[in-house]
Amino acid sequence: MPNLTQIALATGFGLILIGFYGALTRRSLLRIILAFTLASTGVNVVIVAIGYMRGRTAPILDEAVTTTTAVGRIIDPLPQALVLTAIVIGLGVTALMLAHAYRLFLRHGTLDIAAFRELKW
Amino acid sequence: MPNPILLIAVALGTAFLLGLLEERRRRLAWAISLAALAFLSWVPATWLLALATGQAAPVEILTAGAPPPFAINLRLGLAEAALTLLVNLTGLLTTLYLKDRLLDLGRRAMAVLLVAVMALDGLILTRDLFNLFVFVELTAIATAGLLLLSDDARALAAGFKYLMVAQFISVLLLIGILFAYHAGGTLNLDGLAGAPSVLGAGQGWILEAGGGFAFLLMFVALVAELKPFPANGWALDIYESAHPAFAALFAAASGTAALFAVDKLLTIGGSEWLGAATAIGLATFLIAHLCALPQDNDRRLLGYSSVAQTGLVLVGIGQRDLLGDRYFFVAFGLLAAHAVAKAGLYWLSGLMAERGLSAWAALRGQPWLILAFASFLALLTGLPPFPGFYAKWELIHHLAGADRLAPLGLILLGTLIEAGYLFRWFGYVIKRPPPASAPLPCPIHQALPILVALVGAWGLGWLWGELSGQTQLLLTWPLAFALLFLLLEWLPSWVKNTLAIAGLLAFFAATYDYYDPLRLIFALIFLVGGAIILLAGYATSGQRTGFYPSALLMYAGLAILVLAEDSFQFFAAWELLTIGSYFLILRGQAAEPHALSYLLFSLGGAFLLLTGFALAAQGAPQLALADLGGVPASLSGWVFVLLAIGFMTKTAALGLHVWLPGAHAEAETDVSPMVSGILLKAGLFGLFLLLMHLGRQQLYGIELTHVILWIGALTALFGNLLAAFQEDAKRLLAWSSIGQMGYALFGLALMNHLGWLMALMFVINHYIYKSMLFLSLGGVAKRTGTRDMYRMGGLITLMPLSFIAVLIGIIAISGVPPLSGFGGRWIFYNAILDTEARLPLVILFFAGPIAFLYLFRLIHTVFLGQLKDEHRRVREAPFWILLPQMLFVALLIAFALVPGVALRQVDGYIARFFPDGGLTWDGLSIVSHYGYWNPVSIMLIIGVIFMVVFAWLLFVNRRAQKVKQFNIAFAAERPYRPETTHFAWNFFAPYRKALGFLTLPLATRFWDTLADLLHAAGDLGRRLYTGNGQTYAFHFLAFASGLILWGLGVRP
Fold this sequence. Notes:
- The structure holds 2 protein chains of 2 kinds.
- By secondary structure, chain A is an all-alpha fold.
- Chain A is built from 4 helices and no strands.
- Chain A is elongated, with a radius of gyration of 20 Å.
- Chain B contains 42 helices and 7 strands.
- Chain B is elongated.
- By secondary structure, chain B is an all-alpha fold.
């Protein structure tokens, strides 16, 4: 019986692979960008899954979890923090890619990635 | 000391501040950006100074006031200070350079630029893995943004392709970091490495489950930032389409930061990954250079070169286990050379309106830009006195000491290919017609960055000389003197000429006491002989821009060469004289391809020397030349082969000779004697040293000196044969030089007393008569406007002094009495009686009469026969070209009369190596154990015979009637190709019929085919980069999977 971590990890890696596959096979810039968002979501799932510890609580200090008991009771807060940063960065990159795609479309009138091959060799 | 956190804070703060400014205050925004970047450059500069002088210790910056692992820490040590300085300074200069573009685009572009610089600084400073990831992503975003600075519409697509690959990288990096955290329990680099700053210690975590895989993922991701083959198509597109100022930043700063990130990562990985780094670096280095060969777009070519150079630095990083405390010296040397040169070249590219390589000929409008261009190329190829030279020297020595011969060979091969395309480009710049468009614009804000890069290049050369522990080349007198002429270019040429002559003579006088008899002969030829030939320089008026720095560079190399005591000095001198003479030869009118092939052969030869010296040094940084004999027997044969081939490249031995005829013939009138009469002797000098210290060597049972004997004999034969079939007078002389060098080679390889004496005799004689002949025929060519002998004739009455010089010269070469050539022959005949090698001997004898053929043709077709109508008003050659010739005539006669002055000392010196078979000097006679030679009585006897016959001829011809050339009637039409009806054309047709099969240009064909193959391979290789972003992504994935599979194999 797979536990939650394993399911999450499998989902995460599955998403990454789907994302990679999509980025390599779709020809529309928008689909490629979408594929990358899938992949980065997968990465985020993997990070959270790695940081998860069975039977512990969220890393928030309040009455239930005091500073003295925290070490034993909360999960590792670091991966969670990393996911937040990664999401922000992912957003930035996606936005930038979309901006590029938009301007490419304005200039060439197409979103087919095979159309942008003036630079080669 | 300023707090290093300011590096991040000020950049970020200014970027936000720019956002608060009004959009129209663009000048202000630009000024603020400049000020911020100047401050950002000042901070690491002060730290660098303090850290280097020991006034400060490396600092840890704890961002949240807590030590790691509870907070992120940054570190500023010597390496970080140097690298951030490099990055921020490049950022500053780029902002300056981009003035117009940034004022156009406004504050947002400037903010992105600042963020880019900040991200690169962060990459360098951070000691935290996740922080590293953040900075990698910031760099990617800023890069994609800054690509839009370009006015090239294609940059947009390049940006998208880059972002695609960046996404793949980011996924791998993030997963890797997380698994590393999972396995190691910390994100701190030093924590993961076990102990702070101790290489290779405590990598226990990596053995744990997942740790190795985690490292592998991070390694793949960060190495991919270095644009490794084949995952580098995106980078090439960026280089080609980005604004050149940004390409400069991308090459110099981004590459630097990424390299340091990989370096940091490797500290936690352990030494088995160094091999992977080396392999990736080497493959990238070689293949990128190969792909650069067929490029015609300057920016893409520079892109390939950047990719390759980054690969080379990665190879350096891969040798850190070997280099020990010299690691930073080598890696930084390679990196600094690449960064400064590439930034400079991209900035130069920004001045050009057109993208073709030949469009750079526009540089000729501004000579200092040519200097900058040449300096950057030398910096890239690792020529002295630049940092790459010192770094490569050490790298190669360490590789040879550790028996890593494959990387060693591949590095040198790649460098040779690189020199090929870079100096071919230099040839275009010097020789091709500049584009018709307006003169090169060079506003101050664009000139200044280039100037800084130029000064930086030389400054780094000085610094690396100081750090190398070797001779500081820039402070050697000869080189400093040569460089002085760069500053004196504005003077008229006669002033510079006088200064040059005085300098050569003064240096000879000052060093006179250092020479042993053998070196004295060579020093005399190099320095005093050089001064004599320089006399011909007075014939040129104007400034003669570029001539004196080049010539003096060559003489500097020669001067250091003859004084060299260790292998480093010798090799540095060798490269200096090679570069100097290359620049000299390139000055000739049609010399472009010939100068290039000269340079490539010479550099190839030099690299063989380097390998030979490195093998002989066995891991030591250099080797005293006198200790060459102490090389262990298992290596000495190989060392001998490498050095001998290296030297024979310079003497143009058969098979390696193809560069010589063109290079010597196409050079300017007074350059030909320099590169022929003087420069060829450098190779002989090397061979003397080699044979003196290593003596006879065997390899697989083959007696190597015997092989050289054969090469010498065949070279003499083919050199002479080909000389006889030339139509061009200077080419004839050039081929004759090949033959003459064959004789000298043969004499050396005889390995007996008289053989060496004969070789030395050839050294002296060849200098005198070949310099003289090149000058006189150069003078004739100057006056008649052609070098084809069949277009000349009857010049004896119009150019009598030139005629006398040629007459004396060919008497001396042919070795008939009474001139010094006869002395050479006499010693030669004595020498061969001492040897067993009969067959090469026969070949050499056969070569002798052939020399008569071409010499006869030379004097007959140029000076005798019918005067051409168009030459009726030709005057004698200019005085200053004649003067050295007359000096040479006097020298030849003097040397013929009293050869003892020069030879006696050397005879005694050679007796140290070959005590038997010397000559006895008995008054005016010279006695060997086969006979004696009295030069004075021979001269008298010949003189008397000549006078008697001459008087007899005058007597019998006293009634002969003088017939003017045109007192008979001419008839018939002018033939379609007049030369075919001229007796002097194809002069030796019957011989050609008989021996023509020997003159097939087999060696030329071989080398041409090799060059074609390399080109074809490069052209094939670059088709890999189809331009499709998905293909590039696929390349990346293929690279990543390959590396991961390999890595899993290493750590199953």
